[in-house]
Amino acid sequence: MNEYLDVFIEESKEHIQALNDHLLKLENDPTNLDMVNEIFRSAHTLKGMSATMGFQDLADLTHKMENVLDAVRNGNIMMNSAILDVVFDSVDQLEAMVLDIVDGGEGKKDVSKVVKQLEAIEQGEALPEVAATTEAEAVQSQSNQFSPNELDQFEVAVLEQSQEKGYSNYQINVRLQESCLLKAARVYMVFQILEQVGEVIKSEPTVSELEDENFEYDFTVILVTNEPAEDVKQKILKVSEIAEVNVSLFEFDNNTHHQEEISETGNEVELASSDTRADNKEEKVSSKSQVTSKTIRVNIERLDALMNLFEELVIDRGRLEQISATMKDPELQETVERMTRISGDLQNIILNMRMVPIDQVFNRFPRMVRQLAKDLNKQINFEVTGAETELDRTVIDEIGDPLVHLIRNAIDHGIETATERKEKGKPEEGTLKLNAYHSGNHVIIEISDDGAGINKDKVVNKAITNGVITREQADSLSDTQIHQLILASGFSTADEISDISGRGVGLDVVKNTIESLGGNISIDSELGKGSLFSIQLPLTLSIISVLLVEVHKEKYAIPLSSIIETAVINKTDIMHAHNKKVIDFRGKVVPLISLEQVFEVPGENEDDQFYSIVIIRQGDKMAGLIVDTFIGQQEIVLKSLGNYLTDVFAISGATILGDGQVALIVDTNALIK
Amino acid sequence: MTEETSEQMKSIVFELNDEEYALPVKSVGSIERIMHITRIPGTPTFVKGVLNLRGVVTPIIDLRARFGFEDIGYTESTRIIIISLNKLEVGIIVDAAYDVIDIPQNAIEPPPEVIGTVQVDYIDGVAKIEERLLILLNMEKVLDKEAIKELYQMEG
């Protein structure tokens, strides 16, 4: 059973991801029946799988979801955002159950609420409401009649409560005179009056559309008030250029209170508004959709084993090359040469096999952003580019959490609420961009928002109060350094702690994770304009370029990424400052570190006139490492020292050289501090 | 296997400082001849370094140094026993390894208290088979990180 469980879990995850992807696309284009079909297929497969594996709750929920989707597919119900929300919610529940199974649970969960909602949606078309809906439609054509189905859950709740408390819910149709010039001003005046007598629950067209004069001459509002209808009407009529006011009692069916039920009329409005938004996104969606190709699943451990074997082969190849060079047998030489070329190709393929598109990490973000934006009541346009960029599997596994954190941060602290943004003269919808691209031997991932940006004064003050820096230090900091402060541990600039982020832990963890992957993070920000977090990561963790050096009889590898250059200096060029050896390197004073002393290398001390120096860099600090000889640049396979030897000072790992020996990799970051 | 679980314990016998020690076969991965070991700076002296074991970087411990015996250098018979223990792969250097023996459970006695003045916790027991005395090692204790840390601190 267990082997099936693994397959089940993997496939369930894929199907849930597919559900999420397609639902998001459907949200942008609710009429797309192809998407509904895709979702239906995924749900159906998931149902079958979970039923076979005996996960009844999972199967039940997917079954209900399937019913709703089927109804949508057959045109019995129309998709709208309320239904989507419920379906999204169901998918969340499904995911939670699958995760539970992963953790060894039984995938049980109380899903009755979602199931009820789904049932309600499903039965929506079978109930007499259909008739009511058509009636409503008929009325709609004459006057701007609201259908209860247009209201969301919150609005329905307010109306119900107000009814219980003895207030009246009125539906008010207002018609402006056709000669009216300043429609928005009149609407504003009407709203002023309405706000005086009660509370406006909903307006059609929406308030913003009204403000933009984006309507003909009619508008309709739902008002909760305790004043009689006639009084309200008279008050509104006092506003000039009003042609007609109709006040009627607004009724909705309390007993069913299925806000999800859809009327044709309500739906059309939904579609119209979301269509416009979907248009500009459509291009991107279509370009992204065709990434999938034929694949098989291989356990990463097998790939590691393959890699190890291949390295052995490389080592033996080195020996063969040596032998053929000494034997000078042309036939042998030819064969070895061919073998070298083939194994080179093989190496490329093996390395490529470990590369996966970063989409694997990115694909869960749209869903997350949608949810966060909803929770925080912000409008966010999330753009993802470069999802096809490939990275080593090990990096992919690690980079997810830091990215989640940065995205949450950008939404929580970066992008302002719609009202704030409007006050600042920005578009109400904030933009969050996630971008990935190759640059040399690195992959750059950028997260940018057009939000509030980083308030430097606030950061500096906070850093001083939290003891991250002193006031004296603060004066000499550059902008970049100030931005880097928010990555220091124990730091948070949000005034209030929220659920999303802002506990002051995290950003330093983000920084540590990225640095442990051999990458770095930089921040660029302009107050009021937005921020850009840029993460630079090595393409692969398993192969890096190093400079091999020798200290007495020992060989060490120094990552090329941290080397500025190498130099040979005369002993007389060495100066002393504070009893420390320093040199003047291109106008900068650079401290010298003797690798022999740091690593306590045994051996005779030779007194040379010249020193070989490797200039290394960490951030904007530099140091010169004294070595005996440079052996040369080489691509090496990075290996860990194993579980037994952890925390070895200034050693980040090991590698196996062509002669089969192990060489240690110098952790230059530890040396500069 | 059945023998081992019931009465007998199949063990590898190795020699260290003229005494014989035994390790359960199931915890031994392989036995290697001495090869090039890369020293790791900043580790306790009994950590000899790491070697390339068919593509896997494996740490090596000198058991003589670990137990505080005198260093006699390597000879033709010196061997490295690779032990896998709780996902940990470690090699130990011993003077010689030459025998596999079945130790009956009833031949095992607790470590005699008089064996030395200092009580060591890494000895599980002593087995007397015919005229041979085998010391049963508890490798978990030998490799225990806490104990090693203490040793390391003692060395300063």
UniProtKB/TrEMBL annotation, chain B:
| Gene Ontology BP terms | chemotaxis; signal transduction
Name of the protein in its database record: Chemotaxis protein CheW
Tell me where in this chain the CheW-like domain is found: 8-148
What residue range is the signal peptide?
A: none
Q: Which domain of life is it from?
A: Bacteria
Q: Name one Pfam family in it.
A: CheW
Q: Which GO terms describe its cellular component?
A: cytosol
InterPro entries given in the database record: CheW, CheW-like_dom_sf, CheW-lke_dom
